[in-house]
């Protein structure tokens, strides 16, 4: 690979965005890529936004993705997809979880959750939308929604040949390894 690829993962605190990013980074390193990762937690412990920038290729000098540079954006929550769409490059892809987590102003009744987000995103980019929560529930554990999204990302980025299931097993507690592998497989099939 002679060019650097840029992946942006965005979500809300508690959704497992950081874990998915760490699994992705570790797998890419094991595959021989130079990888740089930057994470921003914000007020993630209080339901605030979380973003992770991952850049990989033969040689990467900075972990920062500028506006209009992301090859893929994975949004764990659809309002976060709308917030970050400006970072997607022309011809880039978005993997969007059709899932809503109301922000504090919405919960307090000071604002309303925006309508028409998926339609707006689809008018601006190549968007793959699915309900990762439903898929995770079918697999057997709602908390694996992040790994469902990770599986979809691996498919969207065409990143085969990496032992993703082994990397997942190394990064989750042993008692949750098999359910997370099933979640990855379900997301990859999307």
Please provide a written account of the structure.
It comes from Aminipila luticellarii. By secondary structure, this protein is of the alpha/beta class. It has a single domain (5-99, 119-189), classed as Pyruvate-ferredoxin Oxidoreductase, domain 3 (3-Layer(aba) Sandwich). The chain is built from eight helices and six strands. The protein has helices spanning 17-30, 78-84, 104-107, 117-124, 132-139, 145-156, 164-171, 177-189; strands at 5-12, 34-40, 49-57, 70-75, 88-97, 126-130. It has a six-stranded mixed β-sheet, with helices on both faces. Strand 2 and strand 3 form a beta hairpin. The two termini are 25 Å apart.
CATH topology annotation = Pyruvate-ferredoxin Oxidoreductase, domain 3
Helix content: 25-40%
Mean pLDDT: 91
Number of helices: 8
Could you tell me the strand content as a percent range?
15-25%
| Strands in their spatial order, largest beta sheet | 2-3-1-4-5-6
Q: How many distinct folded domains?
A: 1
The helix-and-strand class reads: alpha/beta
Uncertain stretches: none
Order of helices and strands: EHEEEHEHHEHHHH
CATH class, anyone? Alpha Beta
Overall geometric form: globular
| DSSP summary, beta strand count | 6
Under CATH, the homologous superfamily reads Pyruvate-ferredoxin oxidoreductase, PFOR, domain III
Distance between the termini: 25 Å
CATH architectural arrangement: 3-Layer(aba) Sandwich
Largest pleated sheet: 6 strands, mixed
Rg over CA atoms:
16 Å
